[in-house]
Design brief:
Layout lengths: L3 H4 L5 E5 L16 H13 L14 E12 L9 E11 L3 E12 L2 E16 L10 H7 L13
Antiparallel strand pairs: 1-3, 2-5, 3-4, 4-5
């Protein structure tokens, strides 16, 4: 087993995510669909350029999801595990950013990877609905957190 420090990534932002009873499914573990919400919460916490300003007001430009890919590696159990999402950028395009995630399950001082994922996010003007180029401030927010692509195990 590993500790959280062993699995944490130096370029990632670590975001603790509280698990809720309603995240569980009939099989007694956190439902796979809850992970997309966990990743979204981590994005908005780690990168305000995702569309919510510091005052909680929506921006005129927001990052919208164009694609998600998730690989589940171990069950996450409500009441047993604490969850931390490591989040980082892997690519900055003209109007898009690829974001990677590592969901770390913590229990008794030990950590394991519950899931890894990646998302392609596109900057969109709220009024027109059209993609917009990332500005220098937005790029500067992601640049210190650029890291390697997520390694999926494959089919």
């Amino acid at each position: 087993m590993s500790t959280l420090a062993d699995l944490s990534l130096p370029h990632a932002v670590a975001v603790p995510i509280p698990l809720r009873w309603s995240d569980m499914d009939a099989f007694g573990h956190v439902n796979n669909t809850a992970f997309l919400r966990f990743f979204e919460d981590a994005r908005f916490t780690a990168f305000p350029a995702a569309g919510v300003g510091t005052g909680g007001q929506m921006s005129t430009r927001v990052l919208l999801a164009a694609r998600h890919e998730v690989e589940y590696r171990a069950p996450l159990l409500y009441g047993r595990h604490q969850l931390t999402i490591d989040i980082w950028a892997t690519r900055l395009g003209t109007s898009s950013v690829d974001v990677a995630y590592q969901a770390l399950a913590l229990h008794g001082g030990q950590a394991s990877v519950a899931a890894v994922a990646r998302s392609r996010m596109v900057m969109v003007d709220v009024t027109s609905g059209r993609p917009q180029a990332l500005d220098e401030q937005e790029r500067a927010q992601f640049t210190p957190h650029l890291g390697a692509e997520v390694e999926f195990r494959g089919w």
